[in-house]
Amino acid sequence: xxxxxRRQATTEPGQESVWDYPRxxxxxxxxxxxxxxxxxxxxxDSRRAYRVLETSHPPVxxxxxxxxxxxxxxxxxxxxxxxxxGTAAYHALTVGDRSVSEAAWSYPTPTAPFAPIAGYLAFYxxxxxxxxxxxxxxxxxxxxxxxxxxxxxxxxxxxxESGTWGW
Length: 167
Hints:
Shape: globular
Oligomer: single chain
CATH architecture: Beta Complex
């Protein structure tokens, strides 16, 4: 399969290109309303999220545990290491008769630049029934590996699409 060219799509007013995001990534506070729904239950609702921005990736939102139904989460096996943020822990989600393993992840002790997101949770939007940013439905970043949130104000191309693994 041919590789997708690494070039910025044209942006319209009010849009951001993931090709303008930095590498290494940065985190920033977001006042936007972040909602996550699974099996008919609002699992998280926050206006106190951080978003992590990295070249070629849609934003990933990290929510404070106080804004997440922690009673629905449990530790999941496995760990991964991000060269920028440190070692991630995974969380399973169970709501009623439905469960999903590795529904979310967090960095219990992130590297110094990402200290503000310590213990905050990021959810894979593709594993949820609905994720919204300010009421706008989110599309999951392609590839089932990354957890980026795509909204109409974010343009790619995005890492994770077929032909982009080497980016």
